[in-house]
Every structure is written in C-alpha cells, then in structure tokens.
C-alpha cells in the first residue's frame, strides 16, 4: 500500500509539472492503483498526453459551406456561431470572435481552392490544411471534405475501373452523385487545434481511419439534413439544388456530430495505450507470467483445495500425463478465453477495423473492478502484441546491464522451486487434517453442503506441503480465502451457480493483496510477518524460514531501477538520430551504369543507398480500464453499463458502414462479474448496393461457468491451452526460464 | 500499393508539368511497362526536361527485392492522368496560406497526395522565381496517412536542401559579381528556360533525386 501511495504521489507530482492548471485526466482516478510499470512499458507510470485536446475542445469547429459560384460561398452551418447564448439570433448578425476563430471566407478559400474552379465536380475530396495562427489558437488544422449533391440526393460509388490505378479510400464511401446532372458543390471543414511542434499533424494523421469514418458519417448526416430541407420545396428533378445561407444553423445533430468527433479524437489522443513488450523485455515477461499465475490461482482456482468444487470439466491425472502439474481443477476460464480469442489476435492488434479484410474485432472486458481487469488486460495485451511490440535495442541493452549488476538481490534461480511444484503432485502422503484443522481454528465455517464433496474428492489428499516455496504459500494463502470473495466483480447478487458457494463461504476480501500483486515490487508486498499471520496453516513452520526469499525473488523484478521507456499516450518516439536522406544523397556522388535493354529503352542502373529511417512505433489501439465503452479501441476494460450491448451494437453497425458491403464485425464481451464470454457478431450480408440494408446481429454465449456443451474440437484446444498455461504457472518461479516461457507463449499464439 | 514521387514544375512554356516521377514496381509486373520512352522535344523545354547522363530515359534502382524506376512521365495512362490532375491542382487550384506548409488532398479517382512547394530565385525567370512542387502520391489513403510523418519529414528535408543550396549559389554569385550594370536589371534575353539542374549546379541532380525517392520508398 505504501508503494501505491508513493507511486500515486509521484504521479500527482508529475502531472502539475507538465500542465499546472490542468486537473488530472478522467482515467487517473481509475488508474490510481494501476501500476504503470505493468501496462505502459518498463519504468513508466500512467503516461499523460503531451497535448491535451480536451482543454481546447471549445476551439474545435465545424463549418458547412455551399459553393454558389466563383467568389460566392454561403455558410450553411458554423458551430462557432451557435456558441453564443442569450442573444436573439434573428436580431443579431452572425458574429465570430476573430481571436478564436478564422473568418469563414478564409476557410472557404482553403476548402474550395482559390478560384472556386474545380477539376472534378462530383467526386468527394478530402483535404488537410494548416491554418494561420490566431491570437487564442497558435496552431490549428483544417480537415475538409468536399462533396456534391444533386436533386436526387443519392450517392453512389464512383466508378474506377482501371486495375493499374484504383485509389482506395480509408473507409467505404459513396462519393459521387448517382447521375451527373448539375450537382451543387458543398464542403464541410473541421478545425482542430494542434500543438506547435513539428509533428503536430500526427494527432490527425495517426488516427486517420477514425477521422475518415467521422468525415463519412458527417457527410451522410449533412446530406440527410439537406434532403429533408429540400423535399418540402419540391424542386424539380434535374435542377441544381441551392440552400439558403444558415439553413442548417439550428440543427442540433450537427453540433452533436462535432461533439462526437472531438470526443473520439480526445480518447484517441489522451487515453494511454498499452505497451507490454513480452518478447524483448525480461521484467515485463516476469510480470506477465506472474499475472497469468495469479489469475490461474485466484480467479480460476487452480488450487488443490478447489477439488471440493464441482469442476466443469473433470480432468483426471491420466488425461494429462505430459506434465507434472496434474491436480488441475477449477475453471478453465483463462484457457477457454485465450482459445477463443487468440485466432483474432492479429486483427485485434491491427486495430478494431481491418479495412483489407473488411472485418472488425473488439475485445471488451466488462467489470466493476479496474484492478481485476488490469490483470486480464495485461495477460491479453501481452499475448496479443507479442510479436508487435518492439523494444528499442539501446534500452534493452541498458536494461540487461542493470540486471547483471552484482546486487545482493540479483536474480538467481532459487534451486528448490522446481522440486517444490513437482512435490505438489506427489505429496499424497500429506495428511489433510493439518490444513483443515487450521482452517477451522480460524473460525472459517465450511458449509455442510460442501462437506460431502470434500470427502468424496479424490484429490483432497494432494494438499499443501510444508516445504512449499513461500511465494507459492503466500499466493495460496491468498487464493484460499480470496477464492471465496475475490472481488466486487464476483458480485454477491449474482445468482449463478458459480458464485453461490462463494456467498456461503464469506471471508474477508483479498482485494488488497490482489491489488498489490504478488510480483509487482517489493515495497507493495505486505511485510512477511503480517503475511505469515494470515497464513492458515500454522503448523507449517518451514515456510517461515523461507519467507525472506520471497522478497529476494520479487526483488529481481523490482522496477524502480529500470530505465523507463520513453513513450507518449499513443506512441513510442523513434530512437536514434534523425536521418536526413536529402543530405546523404545530395552530398555524395552517385554510381550508375547503363543497362543494355532489349527494345531500345535507355536505362541507367543506380546503386541503392543503405539507410534505415527510424520511425516512431504507434501503439495498437488497446487500452486498459476506461470509464466508458469506446468503439475506437480494440481491447479495453469498461464498467458495467445498462446499455452496453446497445452501445456495442451501435458501434458494430458503424463498423459495417465503414467497411462496406460484406463486412463483418465481432465483439467479444467478457463479463468478469458473471464470468462469461459472449460473442456479438454482425454481418453485412447484403450484396445489393441499396443503402437501407441493416446488418444482422447475433449473440452467442461462448463460455459460462459450467457450460458443458463445448464442441469436441474446442474442448481439446482448451485443454491444450490450459496445459500451456499450467506450465507457465510453474515456470515463473525461476527467472532463467524466460526463454521457456517465451516458447510457451509462441506455442499459444500459433 | 503504388507510390509515386514527382517533381513538378510550373513551366513558363508548358504550364504545370512533371519533370521526374519515381514509382515502385509491383512484384510480378514486367519492368518494361514502367520504362519511359523518348519525349518529343516539342513537348518539353529545358526547364521541364528530364536530363540524366547518357541520354537515358529511365533510372532504375534495385533495393532488396523492390525495384524503383524513375522516368519523366509514368508510362501508364491512368497514372499519368491522375498525376496530371494532381499537378494542376497544386499549381492552380489549391490554396495554402503558407508555402512552407504541406498540402494534402485526395480522392478516389486521382489518388491521395502530400505535396510541398518551393520557389527558386532566378533572375532569368518570369517573376524572378521558378515554382516547383515535390509531390508524394499514393493509391491508398490509409497507407499515405500511416506514413505521413516520415514522408513529410523527408519532403521537408529535400526542399530545405534544394532551397538552401540555391541561396548559397546565389550568394556566391552576388559576391563575385560586383557589377553595377546588373543591379535592378533583368538580363538581356528574357525569359530564359533553365533547368533546376542549372540552378543547383548539379549535373546529376535527377539521378540523386531518384536515389532519394527510391530510398524513401524503400522505407515504407
């Protein structure tokens, strides 16, 4: 706890240094007990956005302009004008604060071009401009979408048939009027304040697919509004539609659309994304493995005492002779989850929407408890991004340097450990009453209903052994009680069979211990004495002597000495010197030699230049706990919301619209409270081009406690995955096993 | 994915025209379809001509398993048409309040592009300067914006190099010419067509520009 407090304090101190007037971001509250080192790369606290768009969101602006001839542009909507409260709009002329907003004429000159002549009168064009500085907005950018409507208000895909040059827009778009009869050219522009540095445009260009999606949605909205405006006037077909200036000014939907755009951009920029470089960083791997082990023990109940529970899939020792960790009972939640989701790993990492395959995938953890979700997020993000997260070599070098320093707490494999777990399976001679009696001495009441199961259980004898490693002991102690009342995510009102036994066995919450995490760092580990006090098996004495080793083992994971990875909320800046190709090429002489070609072509061969431009690593759209469901992220944890399924459904409909015909969108909803995994699928099965096809939604419950109707193939895969996880569980005790763990992770992936 | 890096020039005789265009060759496509043909002398003048050693029409670089070819115009008709539209746009239609800032636009017909303009001071030119644009064109909107920073960074570096070299040459000339006759006067035979090669005093300028463009494309 002390460590948590210190870390929290550190975080609070850091924040005002960057932006003194700014309150901590919304996610900070939920992240206060997040250890940044776990999810955000080695040595990092929760990253804070260097540019906070949320502070400047009032400067964002949407302008809709109609082209009614050369040098004649009419503003149909301007969000900067609608912001003036308490003034009668009829009497006051449109007023614009020039120190905050650019004049509309200046914007329309950029949007339509200097002369208002357009080379292509029908097709939609997207533009990106830098705007001149204003007193209150030193830097800003303008995103323009130019489009045309004709009297039919219907758009179609512009035909581009040439295979040699068929440009592909980011999102599926119908960008040309159905017939070419005298369309009206319209444009809308989104003004976004940016930072003043050289790469300020990155907040837009890095999130371009999302922005393109918003442009498309806004364009459709404007077309729909204009159609509604035009229909009463009953324009004759074929005439050029014209709209009175300011006709859209009172449309609340356009303000809402701007609001949605800004909000989405704020989330993309300011939400810290995950960085879990399992493949390249040892300490990250250790933390990840510890998280897996903790999850297996605490959440899936991978403990011999759990044999008293009705297990969903009984696994006898004979079915898994391949490894020694045979007393595997409890749920296979994690194994099932991974089996189900890992096939979609690449798509999740590539972002929620994959425009090539026209498929969208999201993984949403629904939980009331950020701490529990943090563990699962760490496990999932680590394995999803296993071969995507790269780690800069220089940092890695320094990292290993600090590890190899001759410290007293240096990481050395503790010799007894492997033997210890093998003992687990062979400890049949252990007397069961030792543990049992200590349990009752503590005053824990085992419900009578559970007793017969205990006595019937064949694995009851394979119980704790005195020589067990302290790491295991502590965790076992935790698991023993916390299994009963793990977290709020296993809410007490749940009526499912899975949790009823927990309610009857009411023990103190082990959230504290869970939160501090077994493997995070030494200072958050409870003092050995206290830990030992709570340890139910008092007769086990040898454990006490081993306890100091706990801190030693965890000391090797101590992250305070680790060099932090420099990162922002969404990317890791490139490491190394900036490469100036122009300088390199132009300053040097070039080698060339003529090539004799058939057909008379006169070709010179130029020797290539061996140069690598360092590039920033934009992190995948995976994030931890956020306070609401956001469709921008492919992996996230969010709180329970009464309309969560509705929100997800809505975003999946958007996906299908963005991806075009025959698109499909999947969302894995993992409810930690009910401990079930649901798959929401939406398929755009329409081959027809008509816009009014609604994609169909199907919801499948893939996993629930004691769901038995797993297909044979799936059950087999789950068993295999579970076996791998169990091996990881036993490998974590030694740091020298990192390569083995990595091999196992790769086995899981493939 | 098709990329094109083009140096475009507003020629005093021919209007907006392309001077050199570097493309990546898709694997499996015949190289011959990318090589340039001899451009008839009537359609180019000195200021918009693609001039490389040994009167070649194409430059080729193999980098790894990728091949990059530079010619004056793309030999494919739809690409040529798209690029021409883009060049027309950057010189005559699109507006930009600050020349040093890039111009990005795109549609599903002509492709998506980032361009950066620059002017070279030349006493023999109309208006005493010559306008150029370096244009990066891509047929995938997503790919272009994914690589936006890298592309823009290198375009900016190239433009900076060219303009500073040109300024350097001008300064040197002014230092050497302490001749009051030319002060505030134009040359006798105006206007004169001059290639960017002459302005930068580098006979291998296009070869180097090709190498720069193919090195940039190799990074994407």
Automatic annotation (TrEMBL), chain A:
Pfam families: Longin_2. Residues 395-442 are annotated as: Disordered. Residues 61-227 form the LST4 longin domain. Residues 427-438 have a biased composition (Low complexity). This is LST4 longin domain-containing protein.
UniProtKB/TrEMBL annotation, chain B:
InterPro entries: FLCN/SMCR8_DENN, Folliculin, Folliculin/SMCR8_longin. PROSITE patterns: DENN_FLCN_SMCR8 (PS51834). It comes from the Eukaryota. Residues 46-220 form the UDENN FLCN/SMCR8-type domain. Pfam families: Folliculin (PF11704). This is UDENN FLCN/SMCR8-type domain-containing protein. It comes from Ogataea haglerorum.
């Amino acid at each position: 706890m002390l460590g948590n407090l210190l870390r929290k304090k550190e975080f609070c101190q850091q924040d005002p240094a960057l932006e003194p007037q700014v309150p901590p971001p919304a996610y900070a509250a939920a992240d206060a007990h997040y250890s940044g080192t776990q999810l955000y790369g080695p040595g990092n606290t929760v990253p804070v956005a260097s540019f906070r768009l949320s502070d400047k969101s009032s400067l964002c602006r949407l302008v809709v302009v109609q082209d009614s001839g050369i040098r004649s542009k009419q503003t149909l909507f301007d969000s900067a004008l609608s912001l003036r409260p308490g003034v009668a709009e009829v009497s006051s002329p449109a007023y614009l604060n020039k120190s905050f907003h650019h004049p509309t004429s200046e914007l329309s000159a950029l949007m339509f071009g200097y002369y208002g002549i357009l080379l292509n009168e029908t097709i939609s064009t997207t533009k990106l401009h830098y705007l001149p500085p204003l007193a209150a907005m030193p830097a800003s950018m303008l995103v323009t979408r130019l489009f045309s409507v004709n009297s039919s208000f219907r758009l179609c895909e512009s035909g581009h048939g040439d295979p040699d040059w068929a440009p592909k827009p980011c999102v599926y778009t119908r960008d040309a009027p159905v017939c070419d009869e005298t369309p009206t050219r319209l444009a809308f522009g989104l003004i976004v304040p940016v930072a003043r540095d050289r790469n300020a445009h990155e907040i837009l260009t890095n999130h371009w697919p999302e922005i393109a999606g918003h442009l498309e949605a806004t364009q459709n909205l404007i077309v729909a509004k204009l159609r509604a405006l035009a229909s009463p006037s009953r324009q004759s077909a074929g005439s050029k539609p014209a709209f009175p200036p300011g006709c859209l000014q009172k449309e609340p939907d356009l303000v809402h659309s701007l609001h949605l755009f800004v909000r989405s951009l704020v989330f993309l920029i300011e939400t810290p994304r995950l960085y879990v470089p399992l493949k390249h960083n040892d300490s990250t791997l250790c933390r990840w493995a510890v998280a897996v082990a903790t999850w297996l023990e605490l959440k899936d109940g991978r403990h011999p005492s759990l044999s008293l529970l009705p297990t969903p899939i009984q696994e006898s020792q004979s079915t898994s002779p391949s490894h020694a960790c045979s007393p595997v009972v409890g749920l296979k939640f994690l194994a099932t989850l991974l089996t189900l989701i890992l096939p979609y790993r690449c798509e999740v990492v590539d972002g929620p929407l994959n425009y090539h395959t026209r498929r969208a995938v999201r993984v949403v953890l629904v939980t009331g408890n950020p701490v529990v979700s943090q563990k699962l997020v760490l496990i999932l993000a680590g394995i999803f991004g296993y071969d995507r997260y790269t780690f800069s070599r220089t940092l890695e070098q320094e990292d290993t340097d600090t590890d190899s320093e001759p410290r007293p707490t240096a990481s050395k494999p503790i010799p007894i450990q492997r033997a210890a777990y093998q003992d687990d399976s062979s400890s049949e001679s252990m007397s069961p009453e030792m543990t049992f009696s200590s349990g009752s001495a503590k005053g824990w009441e085992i419900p009578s209903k559970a007793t017969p199961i205990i006595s019937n259980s064949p694995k009851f004898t394979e119980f704790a052994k005195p020589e067990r490693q302290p790491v295991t002991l502590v965790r076992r102690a935790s698991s023993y009680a916390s299994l009963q009342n793990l977290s709020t995510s296993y809410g007490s009102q749940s009526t499912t069979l899975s949790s009823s036994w927990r309610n009857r066995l009411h023990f103190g919450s082990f959230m504290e211990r869970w939160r501090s995490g077994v493997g995070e760092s030494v200072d958050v580990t409870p003092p050995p004495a206290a830990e030992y006090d709570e340890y139910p098996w008092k007769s086990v004495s040898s454990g006490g002597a081993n306890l100091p080793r706990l801190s030693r083992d965890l000391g090797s994971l101590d992250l305070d000495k680790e060099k932090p990875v420099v990162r922002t909320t969404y990317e890791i800046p490139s490491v190394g010197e900036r490469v100036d190709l122009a300088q390199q090429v132009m300053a040097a002489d070039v080698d060339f030699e003529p090539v004799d070609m058939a057909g008379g072509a006169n070709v010179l061969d130029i020797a290539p230049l061996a140069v690598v431009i360092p590039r920033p690593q934009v992190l995948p759209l995976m994030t931890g706990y956020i306070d609401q469901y956001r469709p921008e992220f492919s992996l996230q944890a969010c709180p329970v919301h009464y309309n969560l399924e509705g929100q997800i459904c809505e975003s999946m409909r958007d996906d299908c619209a963005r991806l075009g015909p025959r698109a499909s969108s999947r969302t894995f909803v993992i409810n930690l409270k009910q401990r079930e995994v649901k798959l929401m699928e939406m398929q755009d099965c329409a081959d027809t081009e008509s816009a009014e096809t609604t994609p169909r939604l199907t919801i499948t419950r893939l996993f629930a406690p004691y769901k038995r109707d797993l297909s044979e193939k799936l059950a087999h895969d789950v068993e295999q995955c579970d076996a791998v996880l169990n091996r990881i569980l036993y490998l974590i005790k030694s740091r020298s096993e990192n390569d083995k763990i990595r091999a196992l992770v790769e086995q899981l992936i493939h | 994915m098709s990329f094109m890096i083009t140096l475009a020039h507003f020629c005093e005789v021919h209007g907006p025209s392309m001077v050199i265009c570097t493309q990546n060759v898709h694997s499996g496509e015949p190289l011959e379809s990318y090589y340039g043909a001899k451009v008839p002398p009537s359609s180019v003048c000195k200021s918009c001509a693609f001039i490389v050693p040994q009167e070649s029409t194409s430059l080729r670089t193999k980098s790894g398993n990728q091949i990059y070819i530079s010619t004056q115009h793309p030999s494919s008709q739809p690409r040529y048409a798209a690029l021409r539209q883009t060049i027309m746009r950057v010189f005559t239609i699109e507006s930009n309040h600050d020349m040093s800032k890039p111009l990005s636009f795109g549609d599903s017909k002509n492709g998506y592009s980032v361009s950066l303009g620059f002017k070279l001071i030349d006493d023999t030119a109309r208006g005493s300067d010559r306008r150029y644009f370096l244009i990066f064109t891509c047929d995938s909107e997503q790919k272009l914006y994914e690589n936006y920073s890298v592309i823009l960074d290198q375009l900016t570096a190239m433009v900076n190099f060219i303009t500073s070299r040109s300024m350097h040459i001008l300064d040197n000339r002014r230092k050497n010419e302490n001749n009051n006759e030319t002060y505030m006067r134009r040359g006798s035979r105006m206007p004169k067509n001059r290639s960017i090669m002459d302005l930068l005093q580098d006979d291998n300028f296009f070869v180097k520009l090709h190498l720069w463009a193919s090195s940039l494309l190799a990074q994407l």
